[in-house]
Specification:
globular
């Protein structure tokens, strides 16, 4: 997915996690609960996912379809890009299995600033 995202974003630097890394794409998702998730996909294969005023640094993980990132006991799974593309935030278990859905979201139009 990183290659797909690279073609549609302006590079930048995200420093919310205390580490500077080149951001290749960032998107905003509106969730069914009304909350917002901001996801910044980085050149090093990680994603900084901001949810409920906390930023979680996640690493890319194997998925059968779409892009999947795990870290901090959470899992962020997206499929496609563009307005309306789905994103799901889930619990991630210590045994590397997917847990309960926390948020079901869709990508808003455009990228985050």
């Amino acid at each position: 997915m990183a290659a797909t995202l690279a073609g549609c974003a302006t590079p930048g630097v995200h420093q919310g996690t205390g580490q500077a890394a080149t951001v290749i794409a960032s998107f905003v998702y509106r969730c069914e609960s009304g909350r917002i998730i901001e996801a910044a996909y980085r050149a090093d294969g990680t994603a900084a996912v901001r949810y409920a005023e906390q930023t979680h640094l996640m690493h890319v993980a194997v998925s059968g379809s779409g892009a999947r990132y795990v870290g901090d006991g959470l899992e962020w799974w997206t499929k496609g890009t563009g307005a309306g593309a789905p994103g799901t935030l889930l619990r991630h278990s210590a045994d590397d299995t997917t847990g309960a859905v926390i948020e079901s979201c869709v990508q808003k139009q455009g990228r985050s600033p």
